[in-house]
Input
Amino acid sequence: DGGITQSPKYLFRKEGQNVTLSCEQNLNHDAMYWYRQDPGQGLRLIYYSQIVNDFQKGDIAEGYSVSREKKESFPLTVTSAQKNPTAFYLCASQSLGLVTEAFFGQGTRLTVV
Amino acid sequence: AQKITQTQPGMFVQEKEAVTLDCTYDTSDPSYGLFWYKQPSSGEMIFLIYQGSYDQQNATEGRYSLNFQKARKSANLVISASQLGDSAMYFCAMRANFGNEKLTFGTGTRLTIIP
Output
């Protein structure tokens, strides 16, 4: 089955630690996105990538880093510089050009303990 | 820069009534797509409907229709005959079709269907 997979579903981080959230897709999509969602709020764009080895900052990139070494994979690292990382993180992918849908993973809920 | 505005943070609607969720957008791109997603309490994002900027007709998908008014830059979602299962967050989003293809979301509307 084609789709987009995020792991883990739940993640706990101690203060001062870096953690990496995984996002893998087998849809052959060029574009991939990371969003942060706080309770009752909308989706805010962290980073996005349209091609391997290239990515752009979104609206709230500070304290986060990404890589795009393979077309299928777009991992997000939440660094210790992110002061309030507790949130729900969603990964999405799309083809480029004329498209009719973006596909989402199931999300990762990150909690700082 | 792209911007999506959803001005209704919450709505309450009686079951079986129709409901309109507002969405306005701003972009300088000549070709773009508009999307609506539903997010139930489980957190998953469910794609509902798509409208292309050059589409002559409003998009429809079952009980969902998109009231696209290009000159007003609005893309309102209409849900006919609402059901209890329609209670969820609803997000409007847009993306330019070429160039900087950043997918931008609005802040969402929480819809509650009352029995």
Summary: Chain B has no helices and twelve strands. The two ends of chain B are 41 Å apart (CA to CA).
